[in-house]
Specification:
This protein is mainly α. It is built from 5 helices and no strands. Helix 1 crosses helix 2.
C-alpha cells in the first residue's frame, strides 16, 4: 500500500475523521512485520489495540436493579406541583398585564392632549400676529395708494 495513503489515513484517524473500514486498513497495515521507521511508534499503538480486543474480564459484573420507592414517586409529584404553583403565582396573569397597558395608554393620551393644547396656543398666538400684519398692510396701501 502506498505510504502517502497510510500517512493521510493516520492524519484523518487522529482527527477522528476515518470510517471503520479505513481503521481496519490501518490495523492491517500495522500488523505487517515491516513498517517504516518513522511509523514504528504507531505500530506499537495499533498492536496494543489488537491485543486489547482479545482481552476478556475474568470477573462477572452483577447489576442489581434498584427499585423506586413509593416515597420517591410522591416526592417528585409534590415537587412538580409546588413548582407549578410557584410559577402560577410569580408570573402575572394576563388581566393585570392589560390593566397596566391600559393605564400606560391613558397616561400617554393625557400627555399628548397637553402637547396638542400647547401647540394650539402657539398657533393661535401666531394667528393674532398675522391679523396685525394684515391690518398694517391695508393701512400702508391707503397711505401710499398702491394697488394690489
Amino acid at each position: 500500500m502506498e505510504l502517502a495513503k497510510i500517512e493521510n489515513l493516520l492524519e484523518a484517524y487522529f482527527e477522528g475523521n476515518t470510517t471503520l473500514d479505513e481503521e481496519h486498513v490501518l490495523q492491517q497495515y500495522f500488523a505487517q512485520s515491516y513498517v517504516p521507521a518513522h511509523l514504528q511508534e504507531y505500530k506499537v499503538m495499533f498492536d496494543y489495540f489488537s491485543e486489547s480486543k482479545a482481552e476478556v474480564s475474568s470477573q462477572q459484573i452483577q447489576v442489581t436493579p434498584k427499585k423506586k420507592t413509593w416515597k420517591m414517586n410522591w416526592l417528585s409529584i409534590a415537587a412538580s406541583l409546588i413548582l407549578l404553583f410557584a410559577i402560577y403565582k410569580i408570573v402575572p396573569g394576563t388581566d393585570s398585564f392589560t390593566d397596566i397597558e391600559r393605564a400606560e395608554a391613558e397616561r400617554a393620551y393625557v400627555e399628548s392632549q397637553k402637547a396638542f393644547e400647547l401647540i394650539s396656543k402657539s398657533i393661535n398666538r401666531g394667528n393674532g400676529t398675522i391679523a396685525y400684519l394684515d391690518s398694517y398692510e391695508v393701512t400702508k396701501n391707503k397711505i401710499f395708494k398702491t394697488k394690489k
